[in-house]
Amino acid sequence: MPPPPDTAVPVVPGTRVRRFTTASRWAHRSVAFLMGVCVVTAACLYLPQLAELVGRRELVVRVHEWAGLLLPVPVLVSLVSHAFRADLGFLNRFGPHDRVWLRAALRRDKRRAARPAGKFNAGQKLYAAWIAGATLVMLGTGLLMWFTHLTPLMWRTSATFVHDWLALTVGVVLAGHIYMAVNDPEARRGLRTGSVDREWADREHPLWRP
Hints:
Elements: E1 16-18, H1 22-46, H2 48-54, H3 57-70, H4 73-78, H5 82-91, H6 96-106, H7 122-146, H8 153-182, H9 185-193, E2 195-197, H10 198-204
Antiparallel strand pairs: 1-2
């Protein structure tokens, strides 16, 4: 017989729960690959040491441009998945518990009870919103720089300034994202296999009900 509603179900060690579907994992991997290509090619274009080592600047420019142009495509294609759209809804929805999480993060309070989170915590939601906005700005300014004959010189100069400095900021934020991922192997496993340990889910995302 099932347990009474007010009785907690014990967590069986090793039990795994579904966290991400194939569409969500494919979108993340594809965007990560394209973003990596953009970062590496940008470094080759702006750092003299790498530029001399790689050479073929025109080819590097073309790879950078097309990788940047394709960045939104995995997300747009994955919108056919209901589960992926649901994940985007979770990422785009802030609740009272997210404000609690952010206050604890600002105080550097690492107690689990002080950081309530649903499927995604407030830090992940902020990162997703910021990187999505930055990608759109990078895409827009990149197009202004690409099609030079369509815009005045002042527009192109301003676009170049914004593109370059935002690219530097994106690099810093991505480094922080990678650092957080390296220190959370179970989260990486979830993105790799689609499932996570239930004990981890209950500890890190106590408000999530898979």
